[in-house]
Amino acid sequence: MAAMGPNSAALIGSPPEILRNGDSSYPYRQCSDLYYLTGFAEPQATVLLRPGADEPYTLFVRPRDAEREIWDGRRAGVEGAVKNFGADKALPASELRGNLAKLIANVDDLYYELGANPAYDEILLAVLDELRRGERRGMRAPRRIVDPRFSLHELRLRKSSEEVEVLRRAAAITSEAHVESMKAAKAGMGENEIEALINYTFRRRGGTGPGYTSIVGGGDNATILHYIENDAELKEGELLLIDAGCEYAFYTADVTRTFPISGRFTEAQKRCYQIVLDSQLQAIAMSKPGATIDELHDCCVRVLTAGMIELGLLQGTVDECIQSGDYKKFYMHRTSHWLGMDVHDVGVYTLDNKPRPMEPGMIVTIEPGLYIAADAEGVPDEYRGIGIRIEDDILITADGYENLTAAVPKTIAEVEAACQRS
Ligand code: GLY
Ligand code: MN
Ligand code: MN
Predict the structure, then answer these.
(1) What is the pTM of this model?
(2) Alpha helix locations (H) across 229-292?
(3) Are residues 217 and 240 in contact, defined by beta-carbon separation less than 8 angstroms?
(4) Which residue of 254, 297, 338, 388 sits with most ligand 1 atoms within 8 Å of its CB, as the best mutation to test the pocket?
(5) CATH homologous superfamily for 158-418?
(6) For the structural domain made of 8-154, what CATH number should be given?
(7) In angstroms, what is the span from residue 92 Cα to ligand 2's centroid?
(8) Tell me: the pLDDT tens digits for 190-245?
């Protein structure tokens, strides 16, 4: 409310429940903005903030309903919304339409994300119309509709120490799942079995589950960036790429490791792996307040491109291959994104058209990779079908960084050791 300024109101609603097929719903996940503001996870919730008002925080929620609660589960109800979630006032969700006009009348700025949710748009447009037509009665419409995302997401981008603690927990569970996968994977198993082990580890340790769809790609499936079928057989001599992060209490980790299914890297795999690792370690070492995500990316591109030339994947000098964009044949994604409640977390990446300097409390991933398609043209055969990514979660601190996922084995020696069963 301090970020909103005086004489303003904010209207933030929850997304609709979505059917998966027939009459079965996906498990409900509160949108991160509403959860961040309220801690309220139930569907059909709306938060209305009015800084300076007698009751600044109103929450609209599903009312208690003995019959529905037998079928769908417990509800906080209007009593719980006040008692347990700190709302100054709570009303049944069905009363939003009837109360909205008087709650937003006469404010200058109404913070509302137009176009994000048609059901809310419809209510708001009707209420705005009502207010415009009723101005003679002293209730005027807001002067401006302001997108709440910028100010709200600036808050979400800088993590409090409590948020960092939650993410640490997500990172610890995620680390355990990657270690368990390295130990368990062997030729003849299915990618699905490893995915099951990851899901089991996440849930067993109290996580919600994966914060995004896990990627478990053996062999050249690892060269498909968003491979999520996860149903092929693991083969002797191939690598397994796992990109999986646990969501814990609404915050997700995002970790990738690539390891040999047989427990030992081949010489060709080692050469590729070491290049990706070197690029990642150099970028991590640059992480500190003032550094930018673009600098981390440029660092990785430079090291990876030099490696691609050394392997014979590209011809020319490093500068030429970067200039021409040739390196993108084997490294086609960016290196970093913000991390938090959403895996690709909110927060703008540029300020005044310039890459934004990182600050203490921000969390970024650093995730360089090398992807050599099985049918890539003009590459030595021994490298075909090799896909490698290494990804860690980096907290920017006052004097540098802390790698929240440092517990997952990463050097060639550490990874090979973790792949041994005994
Ligand atoms: N797992 C999504 C990403 O690494 O960005
Ligand atoms: Mn990532
Ligand atoms: Mn990832």
Answers:
(1) 0.97
(2) 267-285
(3) yes
(4) 254
(5) Creatinase/methionine aminopeptidase superfamily (3.90.230.10)
(6) 3.40.350.10
(7) 39
(8) 999 999 999 999 999 999 999 999 999 999 999 999 999 999 999 999 999 999 99
